[in-house]
Amino acid sequence: MEALREGGFDDILALCGGCCSCATCHVYIEHGPEELKAPGSDDEDDLLESSAHRGEGSRLSCQITLDGAHDALTVRLAPED
């Protein structure tokens, strides 16, 4: 989520500031490690379940910790609910 904001993607609301409580930073993992394509916690899964736009590779960007293995990561912003 922070990387998106720092990259100039102001469309991502992230109302909760990264606390995994609002789902306004919903993205789709388009390209990247398979382990990133599934929710990392039950809380994240519950929030994504409430989205009308949940799809394959849905994640809350605030719950993705980036490292050097994610250099080729490609995400697409989900539509707002």
Structure description:
With 81 residues, this protein is an alpha+beta fold. The protein has a single domain (2-77), classed as Beta-grasp domain (Ubiquitin-like (UB roll)). It has 2 helices and 3 strands, in the order αβαββ. The protein has helices at residues 2-6, 42-49; strands at 26-31, 58-60, 74-77. It has a 3-stranded antiparallel sheet with strand order 2-1-3. The model has no long low-confidence stretch (mean pLDDT 92).
Write the layout of secondary structure elements.
Layout: H1 2-6, E1 26-31, H2 42-49, E2 58-60, E3 74-77
Antiparallel strand pairs: 1-2, 1-3
Overall mean pLDDT: 92
SSE pattern, N- to C-terminal? HEHEE
Q: Largest beta sheet, briefly? A: 3 strands, antiparallel
C-alpha-based Rg, rounded: 11 Å
The number of helical elements comes to 2
Number of strands: 3
Low-confidence stretches: none
Label the structural class.
alpha+beta
What is the name of the CATH class?
Answer: Alpha Beta
Shape: globular
CATH superfamily: Beta-grasp domain
CATH topology: Ubiquitin-like (UB roll)
Strand order of the largest sheet: 2-1-3
Task: Provide a concise account of the structure shown.
The chain is α+β, with helices and mostly antiparallel strands. 16% of the residues lie in helices and 16% in strands.
Identify the notable features of this structure and list them briefly.
81 residues; alpha+beta; Ubiquitin-like (UB roll); 3-stranded antiparallel sheet; 2 helices; 16% strand; globular
